[in-house]
Each structure stands twice: as C-alpha cells, then as structure tokens.
From TrEMBL:
Pfam families: 2-Hacid_dh (PF00389), 2-Hacid_dh_C (PF02826). The keyword GTP-binding does not apply. Homotetramer. PANTHER family: D-3-PHOSPHOGLYCERATE DEHYDROGENASE, FORMATE DEHYDROGENASE 1. CDD domains: PGDH_4 (cd12173). One of its GO terms (molecular function) is phosphoglycerate dehydrogenase activity. This is D-3-phosphoglycerate dehydrogenase. Keywords: Acetylation, NAD, Oxidoreductase, Phosphoprotein. It comes from Strigamia maritima (European centipede). Residues 137-301 form the D-isomer specific 2-hydroxyacid dehydrogenase NAD-binding domain. Belongs to the D-isomer specific 2-hydroxyacid dehydrogenase family.
Length: 347
C-alpha cells in the first residue's frame, strides 16, 4: 500500500493565483492543475479526481461541489475569508478547510500588531478611508474636477478624541486599534472570544454589543461573514447608535444590511460610510453607491501585488506541511473534522 510519502497528491486551482504557489507545490512533488475561472459545471466534472482544491474568493465551494468530490481532503483558501465555502458540508464530509496563515504571522501579530498579507492591506485601507470620510476627500476631489470650489460644502470632523468601536479583535482589529490610537482615538470593542484583560493589553475597552453601539462615533467591522454576523449592522443597531455615527467595512459584504445603511444615511442617523465590500459584487444597490456620503471601492483591501504574492506562497507552504504531516496551520474546521481520520488520507 502506498504511504503518504510515496503518494503524489493532485491539486486543482480554480481561481487566479501567483505562479509562486504553483512552483512551491510542484517543487514538493505535488501535481498541479491550474484552471482559473472554471464555471460550476466544469468544477463538478473536474473535482472528483483531486485531493486538494485551492480557491480565492471567486469559486463557491458549495455542498453540490463537495458531494461529488470523492477524493477531496483539503480546501485551501488563498486569503482569510471562508464564506465562499460551505463549512457544514465540508466538515460533514471530513474535508479540512484551511485559510492562509502562518505560525510566524500568528506569533508576530500577537506581539507586535502586525498582520498577515491580506490583513495588512485591510488595516492600511481602513486607516486611509477612516481619514477620508471625516473630510469628504473623494467628494471634494470630484467637485474640483468639475471646476467647482465648494470649500464650505465639505465641512469635516476631527477623529482625535472620538470613539472608535472595533467589532472583532483578531489580528486585523488589534492592528487597527494600535494605529488609530496614534491619532488620539479612544478605542472600544467587542469580541466573543477574548477577555477584557486581553483587550485592555492593547488599549481597547471591551463591551457587549448592546453597550457598544451608543458609545461609538465610528464603527469598524473585522469579523467573518457567517450566520451570526450577517446583517449585524441593521435598523435596530442604527436606532441605538449616536446620531451621525460613521461605518467602515473592509471585512465582508453582508455584515452590513445595505438597505438599513442607506436609510440611516438618508435620515441622518449615519453621517458617512466607507465600504470596500458588498453583499453582491459587483453591487446592485446603485442608490447606496451613489450617495454623497458614501466612499466605495471595489474590494481592494488586499489587492496589491505584494499581498497577493505573499498569500499565494503562504497557502502553498501550508499545504506542503499538511501533506507531509508536519502541521495544521490555518485550519478553521479542525474541531469538526478531527473525528475523521484524515491523516490516513482515505475516504
């Protein structure tokens, strides 16, 4: 019987990815098939022959896909969000779902407020657009391009002394806190996992969500999209917030109820929003995108050459460690699949 050291694993990659990922896998005797932007029908035909699937955010790893993936052991997500993977179906079938993250990054983030490749892009963008929505910079720029001088129309607000509510205090949330404290912002937050003592160690005062909303001048979101966080920001939340609160979302579309946000912008409960992600991409809510108090970008948080190169290399290295029985880095459904003897690589 062939051992795991002798077996050549087959990887299917269905989203665009850096060549570095392919090179690392091949250097470690892993067969790679690179077919970016496959339609669902094509994925259903291809996937039964592969042990490993690598995706970014484009491919939807649905129950339908998983049900025909008879050899599949691992879904590797080149990035951090796994909302495009049916986690329940994967776990039931004993398929490990792994997102990009390394030991070094995890340790460094906890000690120095550093982030993984995608996370650093989100932190940088968060800082930039927070500053921009306080001064209406994009709107003022567009006004000048129309040969207008409307200085009095674009009255900004200071962030020094304002309260920033951070929902989700993982690596990205902590890094955001660290940077925005440098601007003199008071940072409060919510996280269902960490303790108040841990939050205090990086300058954040922890509150339950119901107590958090009324304290915030700005709300920034750094949570995954799942059943608990879908439409986390909704009409009820805006009713509890200070009038004129500002919303920043560079995490995942769907965390904010876009109709509720638009209503809050129209009635003045929300003074501005900065959005990099949307419930549907490209977004269909034209009224929200075109609102004068909305800054929007087409999911650019980690869209840099350096970030995408690093993400590609990291997920490849994690997969190599997985198939060589060295480590399980970035596994997000480990508890559910531990009852399945996936180390035997049998189905």
């Amino acid at each position: 019987m062939m051992t795991h050291h002798e077996k050549r694993f087959r990887v299917l990659i269905t989203d665009p990815i850096s060549q570095s990922c392919i090179d690392i896998l091949k250097e470690n005797n892993i067969d790679v098939t690179y077919k970016p932007k496959l339609a669902l029908e094509e994925i259903l035909k291809e996937i039964p022959e592969y042990e490993i699937l690598i995706v970014r955010s484009g491919t939807k790893v649905t129950k339908e896909v998983l049900n025909v993936a008879n050899k599949l052991m691992l879904v590797g997500r080149a990035g951090t969000g796994v909302d495009n993977v049916d986690m329940d179906a994967a776990t039931r079938r004993g398929v490990v779902v792994m997102k990009q993250c390394t030991r070094w990054q995890h340790n460094q983030c906890c000690r120095t407020h550093m982030c993984h490749a995608n996370g650093y892009g989100q932190v940088k963008q968060n800082k930039q657009i927070t500053n921009k929505i306080t001064l209406d910079i994009p709107q003022a720029c567009n006004s000048m391009k129309l040969n207008k001088w409307e200085r009095n129309l674009f009255m900004g607000t200071e962030i020094h002394g304002k309260t920033l509510a951070i929902v989700g205090l993982g690596r990205v949330g902590r890094a955001v806190a660290f940077r925005m404290q440098a601007f003199g912002m008071k940072t409060v937050g919510y996280d269902p996992i960490i303790t108040a003592e841990t939050a205090k160690s990086f300058g954040v005062q922890l509150f339950p969500l119901e107590e958090l909303w009324p304290k915030a001048d700005f709300i920034t979101l750094h949570v995954p999209l799942d059943a608990e966080t879908k439409h986390l920001i909704n009409d009820d939340v805006f009713a509890k917030c200070r009038r004129g609160v500002r919303i920043i979302n560079v995490a995942r579309g769907g965390i904010v109820n876009e109709e509720a946000l638009l209503n809050a912008l129209v009635n003045g409960n929300c003074a501005g929003a900065a959005l990099d992600v949307f419930a549907e991409e490209p977004p269909r809510n034209v009224a929200l995108i075109q609102h004068i108090k909305v800054i929007c970008t087409p999911h650019l948080g980690a869209n840099t050459t350096e970030a995408q190169l690093e993400v590609s290399k990291q997920i490849a290295k994690q997969i190599v460690e997985f198939v060589n029985h060295k480590a399980l880095i970035g596994v997000v459904n480990g508890y559910g699949v531990f009852s399945v003897n996936f180390w035997s690589f049998s189905k």
